[in-house]
Batch of 2 targets.
Target 1
Amino acid sequence: MMGAGLAMLAAPAAIEGPVILPISPGHALSVLDAIAVLPLVTGSFFLYRGLWHRRGSLRALALRMPGRAGAVLFVGGFGLGLLIASAFSAFFWWWAVGAVVFGAALLAAVFVVCVQ
C-alpha cells in the first residue's frame, strides 16, 4: 500500500491535477497528493503497528547497544525534521535527503524486528 501512495506522490506535476493548498514556493497539495494520502497512511499504520507489537525486540537491542540505538534515533529524527522543514521553507530539495535518512532509520528498525 505504501508503494502505491509513494508512486502517486512521485507522479509528474502534469497529471497531479489542480492545486488544493499551496504550502510554500515549490510545494503544494494537489488533488493526486490528497488521494495518495489514503494508501500512504494506511500502509504506514500497518508498518508502525507491526513495529509497536515487536517493540520488545527493539528495546532489547537498544539495551545491548545504546550508542547505536541513540544514533539511529537521532538520524531518524533529523531526517524527519528535514522533511518537515523543507516543506515550509526554501530548502526545496532537502526533502529528498530527509526522506532517504528517515527511510534508512525506519528500515533499520524493520530489519531488527524481522531478524529477531
Target 2
Amino acid sequence: MKIWRIAFTLFVAFSLVACEKADPFEETDSGKNTLGFMLNGKKVEYVWQPVMPPAVYMDPVWAREYSNDTLEIYASLESIAALGGHNSIAINLPVKKLTNGAVLVNQADIILSYLAGSEPVEDYTRLYYNSLDVTTSRVSIRTCKPGEVLSGTFEFEGDAEFRDGTTQHCRITNGHFDVKWEKYQNTLMPD
C-alpha cells in the first residue's frame, strides 16, 4: 500500500510541476495561451488551474477565427474587484489587418463587462451588467502566423458608469497576449 501512495504522490507532484503557469507579461511568441494587463496600475492575469490527467478542460485563454473574418481573443481572468468581480475579457480583431508589426489603433472591439449595480426584487437580487465604454485602443502585433500563433501587446481606456450615478475611468496598460490561433469549426448539424 505504501508503494501506491508514493507512486500517486510522485504522479501528482510531477503533474503540478509540469503544468506551471506561464508568465503573462513575458514577451513570448509560441502560442502559450497567456494574457495579462494592468488595470489602473494593478495586475490582472488569466486564471490558471492545474488539471490532472485525464481531466478534460477548456483553456483559460484562447483565440478563434470566425467565418466573419474576426479573430476573438478570450481570457478567463482573476476576479477584478474594481469592476464588481468581473472575470473575463474578449478582444475582437479584424483578420485582414493582422500582420507582423501591425498596429491597430481604435480598430479592436473590446468587451470588458462590469457589474453596474443591483437591486432587490421580491425574493432575489437583480444584477445589472454593462460593457466598458472604450474610448481609445491600440493593439500591436508582434508575431502573426495565421492559423498558428498571434502575439503582441494592447492598451485601452474607457469608462464604467454605475447605476448609482458614479463613473470610473479605466486605463488598461501593459497588456500582453500570446495565443494559439484556431479556426472555429461549427459542429452543428445543418437544417
